[in-house]
Amino acid sequence: GIQVEQSPPDLILQEGANSTLRCNFSDSVNNLQWFHQNPWGQLINLFYIPSGTKQNGRLSATTVATERYSLLYISSSQTTDSGVYFCAVESNFGNEKLTFGTGTRLTIIP
Amino acid sequence: DVKVTQSSRYLVKRTGEKVFLECVQDMDHENMFWYRQDPGLGLRLIYFSYDVKMKEKGDIPEGYSVSREKKERFSLILESASTNQTSMYLCATPGGVGGYTFGSGTRLTVV
């Protein structure tokens, strides 16, 4: 099946810093999503981005489908950005099943 | 907004017990999914259902079964709970703006 790799696995930053999280995937995809899991375990959908670039406030994401990677940018980090960020992809075989990466744990220090 | 509701936030069960985890969605979506999350492993698909009474195994179905008698409800069943099934369980549906919506999760501890 499709493989999803995220890097880095852990990231510790000072408040106000910028960060880039990367997601590589092994095959063509119908769908790619970025999620943020807060400290209480709730997964929040950040972006639905099978290709192109999207922005939402301090967050933006870019997926280059032809090169099989996606990047999540967080600018001017805040402590509330802490948590685990997951990338997940749906392969071209459909059924809407998502395969997840192992996540990047982001810790923002005040 | 789509809502996915999981019946329990925390559960503690004994080894060998039969355990039911319930999930309800209000989006009237055909597809529903059960994942488990373990540290360092991300989320892994246990089972999914693409319609009432229809189900398919995911990547790690051993020790689990599912039930989908109504479109809005998808239940995960641990036939005989074991300590290696201690985990966070998350239910999801593709309904909602921009993709998947997850329930708030059930932290299951098997002692």
- Residue-averaged pLDDT of chain B, rounded? 93
Principal-axes geometry of chain A comes out as globular
Give the overall shape of chain B.
Answer: globular
- Assembly state: heterodimer
Number of helical stretches of at least 4 residues of chain B: 0
- Which spans of chain B of ≥5 residues are poorly predicted at pLDDT below 50? none
What portion of residues of chain B belong to β-strands? over 45%
> Residue share in helices of chain B?
under 10%
What is the alpha-carbon Rg of chain A in Å? 13 Å
Strand content of chain A: over 45%
Write the SSE topology.
The complex is a heterodimer of chains A (110) and B (111).
Chain A: E1 4-7, E2 10-14, E3 19-25, E4 29-37, E5 43-48, E6 52-56, E7 59-64, E8 69-74, E9 83-91, E10 99-100, E11 104-109
Parallel strand pairs in A: 2-11
Antiparallel strand pairs in A: 1-3, 3-8, 4-5, 4-9, 6-7, 7-8, 9-10, 9-11
Chain B: E1 4-6, E2 10-13, E3 19-25, E4 32-38, E5 42-51, E6 54-57, E7 64-70, E8 73-78, E9 87-93, E10 101-102, E11 106-110
Parallel strand pairs in B: 2-11
Antiparallel strand pairs in B: 1-3, 3-8, 4-5, 4-9, 5-6, 7-8, 9-10, 9-11
List keywords for this structure.
heterodimer, A: mainly beta, about 60% strand, globular, B: mainly beta, 4-stranded antiparallel sheet
Structure description:
The complex is a heterodimer of chains A (110) and B (111). With 110 residues, chain A is mainly beta. In chain A, 0% of the residues lie in helices and 59% in strands. In chain A, strands 2, 4, 5, 9, 10 and 11 form a 6-stranded mixed beta sheet that branches. A 5-stranded antiparallel beta sheet of chain A has the order 1-3-8-7-6, with no helix packed on it. In chain A, strand 6 and strand 7 form a beta hairpin. Chain A starts with a strand and ends with a strand. Chain B has 111 residues and is mainly β. Chain B is built from no helices and 11 strands. In chain B, the strands form 2 sheets. In chain B, strands 2, 4, 5, 6, 9, 10 and 11 form a 7-stranded mixed beta sheet that branches. A 4-stranded antiparallel beta sheet of chain B has the order 1-3-8-7, with no helix packed on it. The chains are: A mainly beta (110), B mainly beta (111). At the A-B interface, strand 4, strand 5 and strand 10 of A face strand 5, strand 9 and strand 10 of B.
